[in-house]
Design goal:
By secondary structure, the protein is α+β, with helices and mostly antiparallel strands. It is built from four helices and five strands; from the N terminus they run βααβββαβα. The chain has a single domain, classed as Aminopeptidase. The longest helix is centred in the last third of the chain and has 16 residues. The relative contact order is 0.16.
Length: about 150
């Protein structure tokens, strides 16, 4: 789906490992603070395995061969009656030079289009504090409880 004449959004698969590797080398430019270090080197096999996981959805927004945004979701199977699955939106970013041009909204629109086609009716996002306002403007609402994290070290 195109957001405008300059930007194309596509869902990545295992054959797109090189695109994911390039993103990992510069993903700090898509974060709130681009001065942090990028995630680091991603091997071809790791990228291919990640993109080949059937629970992983990873969209790229591109313009002129450059990545300008991305959206990463995980399909969560449900154990209760109702829709067979829901999405967990794990990370989304827009390149620092492309912010405030509708890239994030366009990525969400493509995700929602995919959800409708799959009959998935709910998406969760454990948003960083700085991103909460954006998600609320896009129709997300606060839910009960909070996201808690435990790192095993």
């Amino acid at each position: 789906m195109a957001t405008n004449a300059d930007v194309r959004i596509r869902l990545l698969g295992p054959d797109d490992a090189d695109a994911l590797i390039r993103l990992a080398a510069t993903d700090n430019l898509f974060d709130e603070d681009p001065s942090v270090e990028p995630s680091g080197t991603l091997t071809y096999d790791a990228a291919r395995s990640f993109l080949g996981d059937p629970s992983v959805l990873f969209w790229l927004a591109e313009s002129g061969g450059e990545t300008v945004g991305f959206l990463h979701c995980c399909i969560q199977r449900r154990r209760i009656p109702g829709p067979w699955a829901e999405l967990l939106l794990l990370e989304m970013g827009t390149h620092v030079d492309w912010r405030h041009r509708g890239i994030g909204r366009s990525l969400l629109a493509v995700m929602e289009e995919w959800m409708r086609a799959q009959e998935i009716t709910e998406v969760w996002v454990p948003a960083n504090v700085y991103a909460t306002g954006f998600y609320e403007k896009c129709g997300f609402a606060q839910d009960e409880g909070e996201i808690l994290v435990k790192a095993l070290g």
